[in-house]
Design goal:
Structural class: mainly alpha
Organism: Microbacterium bandirmense
Order of helices and strands: HHHHHHHHEEHHH
Main location: membrane
Strand order of the largest sheet: 1-2
Oligomer: single chain
Distance between the termini: 127 Å
Helix content: 40-55%
Protein name: Cytochrome bc1 complex cytochrome c subunit
Subcellular location: Cell membrane
CATH class of the largest domain: Mainly Alpha
CATH architecture of the largest domain: Orthogonal Bundle
Pfam families: Cytochrom_C, Cytochrome_CBB3
Largest sheet: 2 strands, antiparallel
Number of helices: 11
Strand content: under 5%
Radius of gyration: 33 Å
Shape: extended
CATH topology of the largest domain: Cytochrome Bc1 Complex, Chain D, domain 2
């Protein structure tokens, strides 16, 4: 009698098994990718942290490569640029962090432009200049933060006093609304509507370009703090009274009236004349 051959039953594979297999593959691939990304990110962060810790020697190298052509290898200055002996780290930070230096071209005044160095590079070059020939340094935090002087608890921040001091000492060039203004021979006083507290202080202490130096005999540290607090308050306050028109006073207001006011009267006169005809 012939033995019957048993055939193995071939059933259909469940669709859930395929979906589970695909899901497991995606999870495995995602896990490997996430681990690799985290490792690369940690390495990148470590490299970034290492690159931000620049030394005075790094600042010297940056200065030699970017500044020595005009200011000299020893900060002595040349025919193309002034000496930096005694200007201090605060002046270097101001000039580099506002994009005024390196100078793009000779002119009546160095304009602001995009910054070409990182904060760490700027600090390193400023530290190098300070190490060679010291000058004005960075202020204490309470000065630029508009806080009370910790050495004198009775001395509180006075924004009204700062605004008055600004009108007396600065408004003739920078405009009473800190909108800037024109000077002689193509020079100008820049607007202070977006200038940082540190750079306002640096300008008062170092006197860049056409600005005079305000020493402690002219304005005390507390007075400088009040001026900074008043300007920062003005930057953060929403202007009231309608359009500012550039905060240029009678000039822009008169131009606005001349163009739109008289223009509207002329248009109305022409319309009335056309109707009468």
């Amino acid at each position: 009698m012939a033995r019957e051959k048993k055939h193995r039953s071939r059933g259909r594979r469940s669709p859930l098994a395929a979906a589970a297999l695909i899901g497991a593959g995606l999870l495995l691939t995602g896990g490997v990718y996430a681990g690799a990304s985290a490792a690369m990110a940690s390495t990148s962060d470590a490299q970034t942290a290492a690159s931000t810790e620049l030394t005075v020697e790094d600042g010297q190298k940056l200065f030699t490569a970017n500044c020595a052509t005009c200011h000299g290898l020893n900060l002595e200055g040349t025919d193309e640029g002034p000496s930096l002996i005694g200007v201090g780290e605060l002046s270097v930070e101001f000039q580099l962090a506002t994009g005024r230096m390196p100078l793009q071209m000779q002119g009546p005044q160095a304009p602001q432009k995009p910054v070409q160095f990182t904060d760490a590079q700027i600090r390193a070059m400023a530290a190098y200049v300070q190490s060679v020939a010291p000058g004005p340094g960075y202020p204490e935090d309470w000065v630029t933060a508009g806080k009370t002087n910790p050495e004198n608890a009775k001395d509180e921040v006075d924004i009204a006093n700062g605004a008055e001091l600004f009108r007396i000492n600065c408004a003739m060039c920078h405009n009473v609304a800190a909108a800037g203004g024109a000077l002689t021979e193509g020079k100008y006083a820049p607007a202070l509507t977006s200038t940082s507290a540190l750079h306002i202080y640096a300008a008062m202490v170092t006197g860049p370009q056409n600005m005079p130096v305000f020493g402690d005999m002219n304005l005390s540290t507390e007075d400088k703090r009040d001026i900074i607090a008043a300007l920062v308050w003005q930057q953060e306050t929403v202007p009231i009274g309608g359009f500012t028109l550039g905060s240029l006073g009678p000039v822009s207001e008169g131009l606005f009236i001349w163009i739109f006011g008289i223009g509207a009267l002329v248009a109305l006169t022409v319309w009335i004349t056309a109707k009468s005809n």
